[in-house]
Structure formats: structure tokens, C-alpha cells
Amino acid sequence: MNRARKLVASISTLSTRRRTYSPSSSTFRTISIINSQTHHSSRRESFQPSSSAKPLCLRFSGREFSSGSSDTTSSSVCWNCGSSSEKAAFLFCDSCRSIQPIDDSVDYFQIFDLEKKYELDAGSLEGKYKDWQKKLHPDLVHNKSQKERDYAADQSAKVTEAYRTLTKRLSRAMYIMKLNGKNVNEEETITDPTLLMEIMELRETISEANDSKELDQIRSQVQEKLKQWSDSFVEAFESHRFDEAVKCIQRMTYYERACEEIVKKL
């Protein structure tokens, strides 16, 4: 419990530094510390303090999540009736109602008819997701051709992927950056000794905590930090300070992974 209190104080101290510090699935990546002297490693993550000759560095290990903009619209031609539409059809052809193959020009926001912005109504997203799943349920397409049933399965998988991506702050931030043609490279090294020490202490605290009440307290603090960096991302993104937005995403990754570790112990 004393360690949890110490962690709360550490997070609070770092929180005051957030405004002065300028600040990638699958979504969640392995984290590792880059150090000239390696004493400890883990298949998931490893944290090592560096020697005094070099600054502390923190590196994300994972693939790069980047793409060009997906804002372009393209015409769509139905494979069954040949009817064309200026707007890409998702799920059904407007003329013959046959199930269509996946069109990659339709982004996740368009699937749920949402405005393309970071902040969204979680209730509205969930409701539209359930509506799509009902329309794509195997029982409703069992009388269709095998080709259309396959298309329906592909569409259902895309809807689920879109929902999971937009539900969480971190993956949503990465995706909206992708739509704007901005790279989120999780291999980029960050040097911030204060942040590094906090993360090291956080991981140690999570590892040693065995009481669910203590774990809940730690998770509450971590979620607050995640929310703070999410808010910082919004400010940076909307101001087109994309380099700063990427740094916010990198910090959000730390706290997202910490939440995952806590959930595993609960």
C-alpha cells in the first residue's frame, strides 16, 4: 500500500510536468529499454536504467502504423447487377440489394456514419455496431449465395475491427493519424528520465500488488494519466502539431499497457 501511495505521488508530480513537456494492431506493442548494459530482459518488455554516460531511453518495439489518407471517395459498381454509384457501397447494393465485397475506400468512421474526429459518442458507436452485427448475422444471410455469405463474413469482420479500433483512445488516435497520412512509428526512441522512472516504478508496483483494492487504486491513477495524455493528443492534433501528437500517442501506449497488466492480475 505504501508503494501505491508513492506511485500516486509520482504520477501527480509528472502530471504537473505534462503542460511544459512537448510532447504507435495491432494496437498494443512491446516496450523495451535501450541500454548499453543489458542486465534483464523479458519477452514482452524490459526496463533497464542506463549508465551515467548515456541518457535514459525508452523504445517501442512493433510495426509501424502508417498509411496515406483514406479520405478519397471512389465510384462503386455492383458485381451482380452492374449498377454504379458515386459513393462506395458498404454491405448492400442500393439497386439489387446483393451483398458487396469489402471496399477499402470506406473508412471506419464512415461505416458507423460518424464525423471523422477523435472525440466521439461511445453510446452511439456501440448502438450502430450492434445494428450492423444484426444485419450481418449468418442467420439473415443463410439463403444468399455462397459468394454473398463470404462477403457478409468479410464485412462483419471489418465492422468488428472498426469498432474495436474506435472504442479505445490509443487505437483511435493512431487510426485518425493514419487517415491524415501521418506516420506513427513506435520504434522512435524517447528520452525522458522522469517518465522512465515512473514507468519502472509502476511496473514494479503492479507486479508486487496482490490485493484487488490496491490494484484498483493503481488502475484508477493510470487511467487518469491515459485520459490526460488523450486530451493532450486532441489539442495537438486539432492544432496540426502532429509531431507533438505522436509523442502523446507514445505516452498513451505506456499507460494502456499498464492497464492491461493490472486487468490480468485482477
TrEMBL record:
This is J domain-containing protein. GO terms for cellular component: cytosol; mitochondrion. It is found in: Cytoplasm; Mitochondrion. NCBIfam families: hscB. GO terms for molecular function: ATPase activator activity; protein-folding chaperone binding. The lineage of its organism: Eukaryota, Viridiplantae, Streptophyta, Embryophyta, Tracheophyta. Belongs to the HscB family. Pfam families: HSCB_C.
